[in-house]
Amino acid sequence: MSAPETNDAVQAESREITLKIQLPKCLSESQEVLEVPSTTSETLADLKQVLLLLPATKNLTNYSVLLRGVNITEQFDEISPYSEILETLGLEGEVTELHLVIKEVAYNLAGVFEQITRFREVIGLHYIDKISQDFGVSSGVTKFNDLGLTDLKVPEPKEEQEPKEEEEQKENSAESEEKAEESKISEEDLQKIVETTKTITEHDSSISKFAEFNSLRDQLKIPVKSLTVSQWSPVPAFRKTKGDLLYLTLQTLESETFNITCSYSGFFVNQSSTANFNADMKVNEKGKFSKSYLLYNLVDSLSPSFSKTIKENEITLSTSTEHPETYLLPNNSFLASPWLVNADKVKIHPDLSRFQLPVLNNGVDGSEIIKEWNEDIQAIRELPNSNIQERILKEKLIHKTLADFTKFASETAINIIKGNLTPMNPNEEPDKQIYLKNGIFYTSGATTVDLFDTTGGAEASRYASSKDLASIKVLNRVDASGIYSLVTCIVDFMGKRVVCQAPVPGIFNQTSETEVDEKVVYGLSSDNSSILRDESFTEPLKQVAETFHLKPHTVELSEEIKSDGELVVSKDTKGVRGSDGRKYIMDLYRTSPRDIEFIEAHYDSAKVDSYPHGEALIRHEAVAEYWKREISTYIKEENAKLEKEGKSDEEKAQIVLPTDKAVFNPDAFSGINEKKEDQDEVRVLSKFIKDTLIEEFLTEFPSQVAPFDGKHLSESLHKQGINLRYLGYLAEQALIKRDQVVKEEEKTIQQNIELAEQRQKEADEAAKVEQESKDKEESKDDSNEESKDESKESSTEPEQTKGTFQPIIANYTTLHRLATQEMIARAVKHLLRQLSVGVPEFLFPSFVAHFHNCLLGSNITTTPEVVIDETVKSFIDENALEWVKLTSEGVFFLIEKEVYSRFRYTLPKEWNQKLIHPVQLMREIAIKFGIQWKSQDYVFTKEEFDQVKDSLAVETQVIETAKSKKNKKKSASASVATTKVTPRSSTFVADDIVNFLPLVKDSGYKSSLIDEIFQSARAHIYQGDKETGASLLNELINIQEQLYGIVHPETAKLFSMISQVYADIGLEYQAAVLARKAIILAERTTGFDSYDTISAYMNSGFYESSNLELVNSLKLYKQAINVWSTVYGRDHPTLVTTLTNLAESLTRVKLYPSAAKLFEEALGLSIKTNGPVSQLTGSIYYSLALLLLNSGKFKESLNFFSIAQDIFTKVLGPDDFLSRQSSKYSGSIAKYLEFLEAQEKQKKQLAKQAKKAPVQAPKAPESKKKTKNGKKSAIPDPEIASKSVEDILKFIEGDQPKKAKKSKK
């Protein structure tokens, strides 16, 4: 969709109207009318959402909406837009107002359930419910509120200026900006900047402080003690005719207990007690009673503290943060759970009704828990999408349904893994057991192991399930018509995998008890005995083939098993006709060809060290990239042909893309009698990964921001189409590339040293010739020469340096370190999965802690002891304790073997001492396996352990048998529980593990509609139409929140992208506001220490500085630095650049001491990461020297300029601008210091003479004095010594150009 089309589509078919809503009497005796702005494209569902948000109607749940006497809630669906309602009722035309009447409706039991659920939401109990249902501890935490940022100042509107005025303003922009910055920063802020800068350079490595979170939810108070379904429920038969629907028990904050009857007319206090039942209304002696149509109003009348507490909560929320994103609950996503948590600070609220939630949420008969997930999602996919509004509605419903499915399936999958549910085939092996619960089919990742007997068995089956899900995500985004994929998610929990799918309708139905019906009509049959090809599937499947760039092909597995024609998709992709008449496809793992080059080189099932399976597939991103390049080449060739033929531009634009270009046979190398052409094409694609994609990645890596952690690296590789099985190759190449760069730099340095010596000789000879010529031209006017030189100098462009200032060596070192760490962490993940088979759930913390002791605690003990409670030993099978025998040496061997097997990389000797960074590796393993550790400072050396082991002693309850002293005759025994304090003998104990998390992969996708509108907005902006572009971006934010909800990782990413665009078009304030929201959402949905969060903090810091909010900017940068210093370490290459940029920003406001600290910190890190002789190190020396020069510290400045000159001369050459500039500064400062020294001596001499002779006014020496050889001296006028630093700087800088331009990268 083009830019203008998108803009028109967003605004078309929708006009503004005003809703005039008349409230019911239960809310307003006068039946007040509310006015709400709306559009004709909004629906009844949107109206209901608005009513839930309005303070006056937020408690109302049971009502109907009348329009001109017509009950539109009964006549129309919730998704019906107002335009359709108006047309149906014959009200079309220029309607600007809709008069709606809200009328309360008599309750039924379902309505009562809905009212109770809404009441819980309004008073805040849904927050507590969410915590109780979370998979993790402290989910969705954020550190943003703890930063103490000040509010952003709304900028004053700028007056429009004439073009000439703008040009004049631009000429002095740099100088005016610096003055503006200085003038806007108060003394108080300057002091805060100094203090914050100090904390940046003083990094605290304590990870216990790293995991301190201030949860806003924990500060909220619950306005009732409890509200539960009463013990007198359900309603007895004799009370049903009275209108009773349900009974509740309320306990208020005043500790009063009320029994409440829920009836068709509302809620009232009855006469029941704990012991006696009487559901009639309670009336006192004065005839007063308590009854209300709304439960909220009834409780408010019974408890004086109720509304008071709610108001206090509202004040707490408003004063604690201005960003509701910090506490809002997600609709379509999971909240991120931190890998470090302080379980002691987790607040648990008592709530008797919490366990009754399923009763309230699953319908009056419990049937609402049973959903037809497949029918729901397929019906939504069949909704029309001919315009923007229809697309928004369709995608909104899809994302909501997918999120609900994933949540529900994950909860059941965890229960399956924990053994809480019974399988359909209990007599099968655990890996082959299947479950069908509430419309979802559950299998382990290895149930299809028989299909992969020759290519890796269980490992191949597990891999195929992930690839199947990846293909489903792609198809969901494409939205192919006439063909349907299954709703799917994968749950990995405690080393076990469960694949969750909504089954094809009718797939379990059998027409015969003796024979199994064949459900597959396209692809390889269920028993692998034939290849089927239903022609009715061909056309729909062509959309799938086009999406994945697949080639029509024949398949022959043997003489008996072959296709009777061409298949358009892989033989393993099965077409099934559902009982609902729809065409479904299953098993989409083979939608890209096999990586045959890798398989042939590394997979051999007969070898012990073989790659685990032979199903290694090429990523979709790699196939798409290859296709783009081939098509691009084709278009260029076609354009060239048309140019030769003299065709017009219109004819060139009509080039039809070929369907047979860059397409591949997904079944190549899996059958017999295959076409050599098909195999050659797949082999070329396979080589493309290593020869092109990886090579380009390595070449471009030095100029990119180095990844912060393993996930960042993995996602960067995946975007490039590079599989993680190439991590070993990347690690090797990173070292090779780094060593090549080091050798090249050494060679360059040697050449530049020789060149510098040559230039020195030439300079000495030129000086002699110059001196001779100057002697002959003494009579020339020096001032005229200087003015000519100045005019000549000012007319020339500033010189450029050839330095690129890229952290090449540091980036390659980082790549090697992260790739190695990622391989080890992934190997550990697989080992934990393999070794945990048979380990009972209650021993899992002990198993994981023991493995970590062997891996990370080897410096403390290589044979860690495992203590198992005697009371549980009788529950344990001996085979389930094999892991107890693990030692550090054994674990190191297993990891080395696993790393080589999966990544074809041999870990170097003593890798466990040289390559491991314990905290960082511990974090990577925790994230990949789903572990939440107790927040404390873990130690990994013997010296540290001996110092802290007493403070980390473990308290355990031990049950001992003691003899009774009451009866001495009979030897009676009794069990006594005592608390035993055991000193630690290892780094980790089972109690250090707080929780295990499920790792959930869903089939959610990024909406193409969002991308289209975003690209359209950018196109408008780049074409100069900023107003339309900004308007589209604002509309895009609303659409994004409709599709995904506010609290969602995709929303965080979009906010970051839009804030960047805002900054580019000069909307700095809007950019800063949106960037703050992006931080909060990234922290809560991707993790407080994820690379998305770090990037969000960095971006926000930049935008705050653009708004002259330097204190805020420094706080944001400080948080980013603290996080990645823990995630990676203090030696990340980007930290050098960040500190340098911060120092330069402080220099602009003349905070020289603080800037110097940051420069010094950056310098130390650069020497460590880039080397003492490198472009970046030299540039920091140069910047620090300039800062010291501005500070008036001439001696220190001279020292750093000399070092910078030496470095630049070596790495850039003596002729580079920076080399010459450093030399110039060094020379000028040295001469100035010589003058100061000479002046000091002259003062001393004059002082001595003054003692001997009468005081006379000393004569000022001439400012331009000649030396013995006739050369003009560089000693300046002595009066300069009494002038300001700025004047001295002007003298030192002389007529030099302002600043060098760095050459473009």
TrEMBL record:
Region (Disordered): 152-188, 756-805, 1245-1281
Clu domain segment(s): 351-599
Biased composition (Basic and acidic residues): 170-188, 756-795
Entry's Gene Ontology cellular component terms: cytoplasm
GO biological process: intracellular distribution of mitochondria; mitochondrion organization
Keywords, alphabetical: Cytoplasm, RNA-binding
Cytoplasm is among the record's keywords: yes
UniProt-listed InterPro entries: CLU-central (IPR033646), CLU_dom (IPR025697), CLU_N (IPR028275), CLU_prot (IPR027523), GSKIP_dom (IPR007967), GSKIP_dom_sf (IPR023231), TPR-like_helical_dom_sf (IPR011990)
PROSITE patterns (UniProt xref): CLU (PS51823)
GO molecular function, one term: mRNA binding
Gene3D superfamilies found in the cross-reference section: Hypothetical protein (hspc210), Tetratricopeptide repeat domain
UniProt superkingdom: Eukaryota
Location in the cell: Cytoplasm
Function: mRNA-binding protein involved in proper cytoplasmic distribution of mitochondria.
Family designation: Belongs to the CLU family.
Quaternary structure, from the entry: May associate with the eukaryotic translation initiation factor 3 (eIF-3) complex.
Protein's name according to its UniProt entry: Clustered mitochondria protein homolog
